[in-house]
Amino acid sequence: MPSDFSGYIFGDGSRGRGLLYVPAGLDDANVVFSDDFDTDTLFAWVDSEDLDSGTMERNALASDWWTKFDLRIDQELPGWRAEDKVNAYLVIENLGNLLNDDWGVMYEGAFPRYQAAVDASIDDQGRYVFNEFNDPPGQTRVSDASRWSPRMGIRYEF
C-alpha cells in the first residue's frame, strides 16, 4: 500500500506512480512547504509509520496479516435404497469472528490500494512544493471478508 502524491504530479496521466518523497525535516532542500501546510501533522504521521526520509519504496506500508478459520461438519447417512447416500453438512465460514468480534477481521488500504498523502507540485527548480497534507486514513475494515456466515444443506446421491 504505497503512499503517494495526489493527482498527476509527474504529468504522465498515471495516479499512484509518484511515490511519496518524505522530507528529512523542515529545512530539506528538496521540499518547499506552502504557508498553510501542516508540517506538524505530516511529521507526526511520518513518525507513526516509522518512515525514513527520501523517496518511499513501493509497498513500504503493508496491510496487516489476516487469518480466519472455517468449520465444516459433514455426515454421511444411508439413503432409502442400499446404494443411495445422504450427506448432511454444516459450514461456518470465519468461525473465529462468530466467537469473538475482534477475530477474523480483515483490514486493508482503501481501493485502489494506495493513499495520497500529500497534494504537491514541482517548481521550476525541480523541488517538491507541498501544498496540503491529506492525512492518509490507513487501513479500513473489509466488511464482507470479516463477517462470519453459516451454510447448511443436504445432498442426496442415488
Question: In a few lines, what is going on in this structure?
Answer:
With 158 residues, the chain is mainly β.
**Major beta sheet summary:** 4 strands, mixed
What is the helix fraction of residues, given as a range? 10-25%
- Global outline: rod-shaped
* Biggest sheet strand line-up: 1-8-9-3
Proportion of strand residues: 35-45%
Protein name: TonB dependent receptor
Organism: Microbulbifer epialgicus
Mind sketching the topology for me?
Elements: E1 3-6, E2 21-22, E3 31-33, H1 39-48, E4 54-55, E5 71-78, E6 85-93, H2 95-99, E7 107-109, E8 115-122, E9 128-133, E10 139-141, H3 143-146, E11 149-157
Describe this structure in words.
By secondary structure, the chain is mainly beta. The protein has one domain. Helices cover 12% and strands 36% of the residues. It is built from 3 helices and 11 strands. The chain has a 4-stranded mixed sheet with strand order 1-8-9-3. Strands 5-6-11 form a 3-stranded antiparallel sheet, with no helix packed on it. The chain is rod-shaped. The chain starts with a strand and ends with a strand. The model has no long low-confidence stretch (mean pLDDT 84).
Features:
158 residues; rod-shaped; 11 strands; mainly beta; 4-stranded mixed β-sheet; 3 helices
